[in-house]
Specification:
By secondary structure, the chain is of the alpha/beta class. It has helices at about 5-15, 20-30, 70-75, 80-95, 105-115, 130-145, 205-210, 235-245, 265-270, 295-305, 320-335, 340-360, 395-405, 425-445; strands spanning about 50-55, 55-60, 65, 120-125, 145-150, 195-200, 215-220, 225, 230, 250-255, 275-280, 290-295, 365-370, 375, 410, 415-420. β13 and β14 form a beta hairpin. α1 (about 5-15) crosses α13 (about 395-405) and α5 (about 105-115) runs parallel beside α11. The longest helix has 24 residues, at about 340-360. About 45% of the residues are buried.
Length: about 450
């Protein structure tokens, strides 16, 4: 691409993506902010996707990108894997939503429970947000208490009980050991505030859980913080397990990102720590919308004995279209578990290659993550907790994303990114080279 000024890059982008540019203008009048999710933000405007296959995505102007967004973590095998697409097409002809039980819900749930260590039973829904909502409801019902512990810097979906202190805001965050509880959206009633307890991501959290055990129904955590791609150590998870168990507080792993990505079954399998319940989404629907809650039989028995019966529903929950795709996907993963070691190796090579290179040049950029999950930070690193990722240079990060887009690499803005089983070693080399070229150009304008 050669060295370009910022204005030259914008011109190049306009030349390459005229149709996307026009649609972006139209979108401003149709959708608030032009986007259906802020995670899809892209300066100066996003491309509009036309189709995707394997590790690639094409925009409507015909440009092909190596996709490191993978629909924000949906496609662990890459886009449109044939085994899954066949199941989808077949099911589309037989009916997409029945309003009656069907064979795929048995097939899917059996496989899901077989793979997820803490699962003896499962509930299905349509998104990760719904899954954490159900998980929280189960914890409250089983313990007869309303408070849920949540860690600063974690994302558990966009409902009112979860959207607190998701991104850490340096102007509002408060002390590290006792973080403020900051609403991450307008429109969340303040009455909800007292149903959540904000936990620091350090050992102080254990003291807080013990001290507030009489109010806490449960604690939820992402075993790898998605915001920042920060793996939680197996040791920390084991201590959290220990303190919650001793205190009579339930532990929920939110595996919407890690589930079936960093191991068949998820982080609980990889780290060897068992929660009482766990939430899933994204990958397990094979590309169709899904959410799931894995629970132990004991927990469900406690819930059944609660004073009031717990209810959850959903017109589309467990619909046959999604579960035909999900069953085909789980089957493929169960028969090809070697894919996890291969994805790990590619992720390690990408992170290791980039970090070593940035360090050797003295550039304040680094990459965090685990397995096929990674995130680029405009920081020296390492990023071991959400507050380590604060104070990045916004303009540099915007430029980095633009550079990468002009190198035909699609990476989300300030967000976790993904490799999939479809990404080859040659793709990793290409991503790495594009990153090196882009950072070099940004650091030497
Ligand atoms: C850890 C985690 N939990 C829950 C959710 C919410 O899932 P969904 O976007 O399907 O509602 C997400 C979404 O990114 C997530 O990363």
């Amino acid at each position: 691409m050669g060295t370009m000024t910022h204005d030259e890059m914008l011109q190049e982008l306009a030349n390459r993506t005229p149709k996307s540019g026009k649609l972006w203008e139209v979108a401003q009048d149709l959708v608030p902010g032009g986007l259906l999710s802020q995670a899809r933000k892209f300066k100066p405007y996003p491309f509009y996707a036309d189709r995707a296959e394997g590790q690639y995505i094409w925009d409507i102007d015909g440009n092909r990108y190596i996709d490191c967004t993978m629909s924000f973590g949906v496609h662990v095998l890459g886009h449109s894997p044939p085994a899954v697409v066949d199941a989808m097409l077949n099911q589309a002809r037989r009916g997409t939503s029945f309003g009656a039980p069907h064979l795929h819900e048995i097939e899917f749930t059996k496989r899901f429970i077989e793979c997820v260590p803490c699962a003896e039973m499962a509930m299905l829904c349509n998104t990760g947000t719904e899954a954490t909502l159900i998980g929280i409801r189960l914890m409250r019902a089983s313990r007869g208490k309303s408070k849920i512990g949540k860690f600063e810097g974690t994302y558990h979906g966009w409902h009112d009980y979860a959207q607190w202190s998701v991104y850490v805001d340096p102007t509002k965050m408060g002390p590290e050991d006792k973080p403020n509880q900051v609403a991450a959206s307008g429109g969340i009633p303040d009455a909800v505030r007292d149903t959540v307890m904000m936990l620091p991501f350090n050992e102080k959290a254990f003291d807080m859980i013990e001290a507030h055990a009489d109010e806490l129904a449960g604690v939820m955590i992402e075993p790898v913080f998605g915001t920042g791609a920060i793996p939680v150590s197996a040791e920390y998870l084991a201590k959290l397990r220990d303190v919650t168990e001793r205190s009579g507080v339930l532990l929920m792993f939110d595996e919407v990102i890690t589930g079936f990505r960093i191991a068949l079954g998820g982080a609980q399998k990889r780290f060897g720590v068992l929660p009482d319940l766990a939430t899933y989404g994204k990958i397990i629907g094979g590309g169709a919308p899904i959410g799931a809650v894995a629970v132990s039989r004991a927990l469900m028995q406690q819930v059944a004995q609660a004073e009031e019966q717990v209810s959850s529903a959903g017109t589309f929950s467990g619909n046959p279209f999604t579960l035909a795709a999900g069953t085909a996907l789980l089957k493929h993963l169960m028969e090809n578990e070697h894919l996890y070691a291969e994805m790990d190796a590619k992720g390690d090579r990408l992170r290791g290659g980039f970090n070593e290179w940035a360090r050797s040049r003295g550039y304040a950029f680094c990459m965090s993550g685990i397995g096929p999950m990674f995130q680029i930070h405009q920081k020296q690193g390492p990023i071991l907790k959400p507050r380590d990722a604060l104070h990045q240079d916004l303009a540099m990060m915007n430029d980095l994303q633009l550079h990468l887009r002009l190198h035909n690499i699609y990476i989300p803005w300030f967000h976790l990114a993904f490799l999939s089983a479809a990404h080859t070693d040659a793709d990793v080399d290409e991503i790495l080279q594009a990153l090196k070229d882009s950072v070099t150009e940004i650091m030497n304008p």
